[in-house]
Amino acid sequence: MTHALRTVRQMWRLLEPVHATLYYAPEAFEEAAALGYATDERWPSYFAYRAAPLGPAGPQLVNALFYSLSPQMVERYTEQAWRTAAPEQVLKARSAAVDRALRKLLGDRIGSPALREAAELTRRVCEAAEAAGRPIAAANAALPWPDEPHRVLWQAATILREHRGDGHIAALQAHGIGPAEPLVSQAAVGAAPQEVFSSRQWTDEEWSAARERLAARGLVKADGRATGEGQRVRTAIEKLTDELSAPPWDTLTTDETARLAELLVPPVLDIVGTGLLPAQSTLGIGMTYDYE
Prior knowledge:
mainly alpha
């Protein structure tokens, strides 16, 4: 492996805000509303935008691939998604939303040599990513590449994000962590307050049952905080996730990866600095783990 795992994790942290603009930008809600989606909350457009590369996927498939969202939530939004618009229409709206949002967020950086270089480097990493066993990443990788650098960067960030997410599910399953339990585990190690995880719409009974299952394994205490073993398992999950995310990055040298990180910092600061994205999420993106 060319790169240290901390570098792989750093690149995820830099690319995640680029990808996440789709789910929070006003332009994304405007494009969704034009197709007929409700926009009083983000979930109708989230499910449509994220699942559209899969085609008209039903709730069972989406639930399997999204993993940690409540099945009732998945069913409610997924069943409505393709009644509102076809996946092909959603993909066009998604592309338009990304284009409009990033043009506004990045301003004069659009079309700059630095942004073009960042897009080219990130695309190289994507094209080295193995799609086998990575269904959401594969579905996004099968889409045609756009021409403009800011849209290339977004698509590359999205493919790599989903590549990591698919691998993260494998890491969770390797450690016996079922669909509701990743959120309880993340809350237990302090990745975010419990109320942040309520957005995934598990009922109080389902959350308590997941906590009890983890407690029976000695992973959480009665008050929901992680035990030492719970911390160890969570760290092992994150390490395996980073390990599974690492191979595509071997296509870049250490100098090229450092250069990409340097190039990404200004546009990412542009995005984060607007306050568009939530300060805390269920991803635990701000967490650090001592495994190197």
